[in-house]
Amino acid sequence: MPPLISQIVGWPQRAIHWLCSGRADYTDFQRRKATPTHRTRRTLCLFVWSGAAVLMLLCPSPGCIATLVLIATFASFSLLDEQP
């Protein structure tokens, strides 16, 4: 990738790091994001959304799509929520 394009592509992440640097909750989030448990849950969320996408293709009505999106979103939030 050319240097200019790589600089343009990476600016949103650099801006977030610059804005949130020094915040305890942001550093905890970054540390939690690197754990194997969180990566496993992210993979599980990918499977949930893939399954929802297949079901959306099978049932393309707006009501069915809205229901599947809400269920997949709830499942993703539940999976990625920090367990006490």
Furnish the topology, listing elements before pairings.
Blueprint: H1 3-20, H2 24-33, H3 36-58, H4 62-80
Helix pairs in contact: 3-4
Written overview of the protein:
This protein is mainly alpha-helical. The protein contains four helices and no strands. It has helices at 3-20, 24-33, 36-58, 62-80. Helix 3 packs antiparallel against helix 4.
Query: Which strand-content bin applies to the residues?
Result: under 5%
> How many distinct helices?
4
What's the overall average pLDDT, rounded? 87
Low-confidence stretches: none
Q: Radius of gyration in whole Å, from Cα?
A: 17 Å
The biggest beta sheet reads: none
- Percent of residues in helices comes to over 70%
The arrangement of helices and strands along the chain is HHHH
Please give the alpha-carbon distance between the first and last residues: 42 Å
Query: What's the count of strands?
Result: 0
Which class do the helix and strand fractions yield? Answer: mainly alpha
Which outline best applies? extended
